[in-house]
Amino acid sequence: MEKLSVTIITLNEERNIRDALESLTWADEIIIVDSGSSDKTISICKEYTEKIFYNPWPGINTQKTFAKKLATYDWILNIDADEKVSPELAAEIQSILGQGGHYDGYFIPRKVYYLGRWIEHSGWYPDYKLRFFRTEKGKWNGVDPHDEVMVDGKIGYLKGNIYHFTYENIEDHVKTMNNLTSVAAKEYKKRGKRDGLLSLMVRPPLTFLKKYILKQGFRDGLPGFIIAISSAYYVFLKYAKLWELINIIDYQGAKKGTEKR
C-alpha cells in the first residue's frame, strides 16, 4: 500500500484548522507550514502532527511548493486550512493508495458553504481542484493569488468532495476580496499586463452574467445573486488596482506638493 502526505499552509486559522485535521486522521503524514500565526493555530496542530514548520509568506504557490518539498511519501493531498475532506473522498483516496492509481493526479470537486447554505451552482460547484497527485509528478505552477498544480502524466477525477468554509460572512468576503485583488494586480503588473477603461467597463458585467446566468447562480437564491455581484466587483477592483499601479498614483508626493504651494 502506498502512503500519503497531506500538506496544509496556515496563518491564524484557529477557527478552522481543527475541523480540517480531524478529517485527515487516517493520513500517513500531515505537514503544516505556518507563516507566523499569533493565535492558537500551532497549539491545535501539535495535537495532530509533529511536522510543523515555519516559513515567511512568499506567495501561495511558493509556500505550497515549500510544503511539497517536505513530504516524504508517494502521494500528496493538499487542502487549505478552511477546508475538510469528506468521508467519501477519504475512502476514494484510501482505495487508490491500496490498489494503485491509474492516474498520476486527480481533480477533486470542492463544495462551498456560504451564507447559510451549500452553493450548488454560480460557478462555485463543482469547483474542481487538482489536489491529489503523485509527489514526483506534480508541481505548483499557478499565478498568485490562485494556486494551481501541474501534473506530468494522466489525470483523473474523483467523486468525493472537499468541503470549503471559505467566508464567515459578507464582511469577511469583502475583506478577502480586497486582499486578493491587490495581490492579483501586482502579479499582473509584474507580468506586463496592461488594461484600462475598456476592461473596467466590460469585464465586470460579463462576469456577473457568466456567474448568474450561464453558471445558473439564480438557482442558489439570494446568495447566488450576491456571489455574482461580488465576483463582478472582484474583477473591477483587480483591474482598477492594476491601472493605479501602472499609472503610479503618488499619494504622499501629491500631499507634499500642495504643502509647498
From TrEMBL:
<dbReference type="GO" id="GO:0016740">
    <property type="term" value="F:transferase activity"/>
</dbReference>
<dbReference type="InterPro" id="IPR001173">
    <property type="entry name" value="Glyco_trans_2-like"/>
</dbReference>
<feature type="domain" description="Glycosyltransferase 2-like">
    <location>
        <begin position="5"/>
        <end position="132"/>
    </location>
</feature>
<keyword id="KW-0808">Transferase</keyword>
<dbReference type="Pfam" id="PF00535">
    <property type="entry name" value="Glycos_transf_2"/>
</dbReference>
<dbReference type="InterPro" id="IPR029044">
    <property type="entry name" value="Nucleotide-diphossugar_trans"/>
</dbReference>
<comment type="similarity">
    <text>Belongs to the glycosyltransferase 2 family. WaaE/KdtX subfamily.</text>
</comment>
<protein>
    <submittedName>
        <fullName>Glycosyltransferase</fullName>
    </submittedName>
</protein>
